[in-house]
Specification:
The chain is mainly β. It is built from four helices and eleven strands; from the N terminus they run αββββββββαβββαα. The structure holds manganese (II) ion. The site of manganese (II) ion has 6 residues, from strand 2.
């Protein structure tokens, strides 16, 4: 497990986030996109690689338009159970704010070298991951590509051109609600307001 950074950043006596202990094995690799209303709104895109969720923070969120290159800054690995986390990280804690599960599903890894499928770990190390998502909102092929000579661990997320690509649909605007609670962030806040 490569969760030491994840654990170091969090006080599990204060945050409701998963501790990353006792992970369940799952057979199909999963992905999740979490809408995170931290000091700055961003979308955390996480792909299962091995036994952890590799994670990227995407300020603008994913796009269905193959012309968009969405900046995706790599962050620390998260436990697999984080894919089901929706809640409020308390004030003063790392990443304080509301987390909604914006999309979730499985994915198929498609990266090739010389027309041969390579290991997902290898694609990650190479900085070029090609995959197909089967989510509730995001479907079809995407590419995560690591930018060279970047001082930050910066990648870009690009929609590949397939039948799920669109240059007119803003998926973030069109489908804003959590796939777990069915709530928008405003509705979520209202439902969790302590009075
Ligand atoms: Mn985040």
């Amino acid at each position: 497990m490569r969760l030491s950074e994840y654990k170091k950043k969090r006080d599990f006596s204060k945050t409701p986030e998963p501790t990353g202990e006792a992970e369940l094995e799952n057979h199909q690799a999963i992905f999740v996109v979490q809408e995170h209303h931290a000091s700055r709104l961003h979308y955390d895109f996480r792909l299962q690689i091995g036994s952890t969720l590799k994670s990227w923070a995407i300020p603008k969120g994913p796009s269905l338009n193959p012309k968009d290159k969405r900046l995706a800054v790599e962050t620390e690995d998260h436990p697999l159970s984080y894919a089901n986390f929706e809640g409020i990280i308390p004030k003063g804690e790392y990443g304080a704010g509301i987390v909604l599960v914006w999309d979730k599903g499985t994915f198929q890894h498609l990266s090739e070298k010389k027309s041969k499928l390579i290991e997902l770990e290898q694609a990650y190390t190479d900085g070029h991951i090609f995959f197909s998502l089967q989510g509730k909102k995001l479907k079809g092929k995407f590419i995560l590509h690591k930018l060279k000579a970047a001082d930050k661990p910066a990648w870009i997320l690009i929609k590949a051109n397939d039948e799920y690509a669109s240059n007119s649909v803003d998926i973030i605007q069109k489908k804003p609600k959590s796939i777990i609670s069915g709530l928008s962030v405003q509705e979520f806040l209202k439902a969790h307001k302590k009075d």
